[in-house]
Amino acid sequence: MSHYKSNLRDIEFNLLEVLGRDEVLGQGPYADMDVDTAREVLAEIDRLAKHELAESFAESDRTPPVFDPEAHSVTMPEAFKKSYHAYMDAEWYKLELPAELGGQPTPPSLRWAAAELVLGANPPVHMYAAGPNFAHVLWRNGTERDQKIAHHMIERGWGATMVLTEPDAGSDVGAGRTKAILQEDGSWHLEGVKRFITSGEHDLTENIIHLVLARPQGVEGVGGPGTKGLSLFVVPKYHFDLETGELTGERNGAFVTNVEKKMGIKVSTTCEITFGDGVPAKGWLLGEVHDGIAQMFQVIEYARMMVGTKAIATLSTGYLNALEYAKERVQGADMVNPAKTAPRVTITHHPDVRRSLMTQKAYAEALRALVLFTATYQDRAEQARYAGEHDELAEGVNDLLLPLVKGYGSEKSWTLLGTESLQTFGGSGFLQDYPIEQYVRDAKIDTLYEGTTAIQGQDLFFRKIIKDQGKALGHLAEQVQAFITSEAGNGRLKEERALLAKGLEDTQKILGIMGQALMASNPQAENGDPRNVYKVGLNTSRLLFVLGDVVCSWLMLRQAEVALNRLGGELSQADQDFYAGKVAAAQWFVRSTMPSVRAERVKAELTDLDVMDLPESAF
To answer: What is the pTM of this model?
Structure first.
C-alpha cells in the first residue's frame, strides 16, 4: 500500500470554493484548461503519485545512488528510475510550459496544487524533473541560440541544475569566486568549484544543463565585486550539436567531484561540481547580457515556492498517516471511565491525542492555503504578462509571501512532523515500518536550502517590506482588516475575528519596533548608532513567524466562512463532516496562534543589545 495520503478534497476546496479559481480556469490564456479539465488533471496526477511515484519512495532511501569518483558518474537505483520515467512519460511537466514550448498554459495555482501531489509522494522526482522548467528560463531570457537549447532540453528530456553555492560562500552568493573567461568564438570557459548542487549528476537523462553563476574576467564594465558582478552561464555536461541537439560524445569540463552523504532525501544527489580542472568547461552567456543575479532569481523564487510546497505536502501526508494509525491503535481506557476493567479504546479517544491531531490538521490545511493563496497572485502576474502588461502589485505581494511559504512553511512542517506526527505513533514512529521517520529526515532540509529560515526573515523585512516601502504588506493588511470588520461567519467567528484583530495589531507593533531600530542605526540620525541594526536582526525571524501566523489565521477563517455557508444547505455526510472539520480547524488554529503573537510583541519590545555585547567566550 502507498505511503502517500493526499488531500485532494481540500486542494479543490481551496482552489474552487475559497480562492475562486473557477474565474481564471477556462478563461483567456487558460481557455483550454477549464474547471472540469482541471479536476481531471488533479485526479490523474493523484493516481500517478499514489502508485508509480510513491512506490520507490522507501526503497530509494534504503538503496541510494552510487557515486563513482573515478568516472565522475552516478548510478541511480532502478526503482527510482522507474518512478522518474513514469512521471516524465506522462508529460505533466507540460503544465509548466507555454504553448511555444509545446506546453499547456495552466494557471500557477493549479500547477502548484498538482506539484503538492508529486512532492508529497516522492519529492526528488519533482526535483530531477526540473529540466523543462529551466528550459523555460532559457527560452524567456535567451537569444535565438539559447532558445534552440531550450527546445533541445524539452524534446530530448535533459536534466538541469541551478549552480550558485561555493564552499566558502553559502548564503553570501556575492562572495562567489568562480570565474568565466571569454573565448574568441564568443563562448566562455568557467573555472571554480560549486557545492550543494541538487541533481548535479545522475544517469536519468542523456545530458544535464547547468545554469552557473560566475564572475566574468577581463571584460570592461562587468564582473565586479558582489552579486551585481555575477553573470549566468549555460554549461552542459556533454557537448552537443546546437542545431540538432545530438550529443557529440565529448564530455565538457564540468565534473562532479563529490556527492554528499545526507540525513534525508538520499536519492536526490547533492553534488560538488568542479569546472575547468584539466578539461575546459565551456558555456554560453545567457541572453548575451550580464544580468546573472536577476536571471537566477527567476529560478530561486520558483525553488523557494517548491520547497515550501514540498514541506506542507509532507506535513499533510504525515498527519493523514498519523490519523489513520490513531484510528486503529487501541491503547488504554477512556479518561471518563478509568477502571481497570473498562474497555480499551482507540487513542483518538484520548484528549492529548485529539489536541495533537487537530494541531496537525490545522497547520497542514493552513499552510496549504498559504501556498495556494500565494499562487493566486502568480496567476494575476502571469495573466498580465500574457496581455503584455505588468501587474506590479501582484508581483509585489507574491514576493512578500514567498518567505512565508518557504521559511514559515518549512519550519512549521518540520517541527510538527517530529513533535506531533511521529509522536502519534509512539515508539513505532521511530521505526522504518512507518514512513514518518523518513518524512522527518527528508523534511529537515526544507528549512536549510534555498535560503535558511534566518535568510528568509531578513529577506522579508529588508527586501519585501522596507525596500517595497510597505506597499505589498499594506495591501495584504487591508484585506485582513476588511475581514476583521466584516460580519464573516454570522456570529460564529466573532471571537476569532477579535483575536485576529489583536494579532494584526501586535504584528504591526513588532514591525514598528523594527522600523524604529533601523532608523536609529543611521549614523546621520540624531543619536544614531549603527549597532541598532542588531535589534532588527534579533527580530527578523520573529516577524516571519508572527506574520505567517496572522496570514494563515486569516486564510483559515476565510475557509471557515465558506464552510459555515455550505453547512446551511443539504449535504452528504462526507461533506457535512468535511465542512465541520474546516470550521473546527480554523477556530483551533486562531485560538492557538493569535494569543502567542502578543507574547512575541513583548519579546520584541524587550529586545536590547546585551546578547550582542556578550563576548564569544561566554557562550
So the answer is: 0.97
Interhelix angle 108-121/292-328, rounded to 10 degrees, is 60
Tell me the pLDDT band of 305, cut-offs 50, 70 and 90. very high
Give whole-number Cα distances, 586 to 20, 81, 365, 499, in Å.
Answer: 19, 41, 9, 12
Which residues neighbour 514 within 8 Å (Cβ) at sequence distance 6 or greater?
461, 535, 536, 539, 540, 543, 604
C-alpha cell at 301: 523564487
**What whole-number distance in Å separates Cα of residue 110 and Cα of residue 375?**
8
Q: By CB neighbour count within 10 A (0-12 exposed, 13-18 middle, 19+ buried), where does 113 fall?
A: buried
Residues belonging to the chain: 619
Query: SS3 for 345?
Result: strand
Q: Helix, strand or coil for residue 302?
A: helix
Helix axes 471-484, 540-566, angle to 10 degrees: 40
Q: What is the DSSP letter of 446?
A: G
Q: Is the pLDDT of residue 387 over 90?
A: yes
- CB atoms < 10 A from the CB of 233, how many? 26
Residues 393 and 541: their CA atoms lie apart, in Å, by 25
Cβ(559)–Cβ(473) under 8 Å?
no
Of 116, 450, 561, 600, the active-site residue reads 450
| pLDDT the model gives residue 491 | 85
Calculate mean pLDDT across residues 74-92. Answer: 98
- Residues contacting 437, CB < 8 A, separation 6+: 422, 429, 430, 431
Secondary structure (DSSP) of 192-216: EEEEEEET-S-SSSS-EEEEEEEEE
Our CA dihedral for 147, 150, 156, 161, rounded to 10 degrees, sits at 150
User: Quick one: which of 330, 348, 332 has its CA closest to 340?
Assistant: 332
User: Is 170's pLDDT higher than 80?
Assistant: no
Write out pLDDT tens, residues 102-113: 999 999 999 999
What angle is formed at CA 563 by the lines to CA 561 and CA 569, rounded to 5 degrees? Answer: 115
Residues facing 68 on adjacent strands: 73
Grid cell 484548461 — which residue?
33
Task: Provide the grid cell at 153.
Answer: 532540453
For residue 203, pLDDT over 80 is answered with yes
Beta bridge partners of 271: 197, 259
Cβ–Cβ < 8 Å for 418, 437: no
Q: Residue 386, Cα to own-chain centre: how many angstroms?
A: 25
- The grid coordinates of residue 311 equal 514541506
DSSP H helical ranges for 63-179? 78-90, 108-121, 123-128, 131-141, 144-155
Angle at 153 between CA 312 and CA 383, to 5 degrees: 55
Q: Is residue 450 annotated as a catalytic residue, yes or no? A: yes
For the segment 478-492, what is each residue's pLDDT rounded down to a tens digit?
999 999 999 887 789
β-sheet bridge partners, residue 163: 212
| The three grid cell numbers given for residue 520, joined into one nine-digit string | 536609529
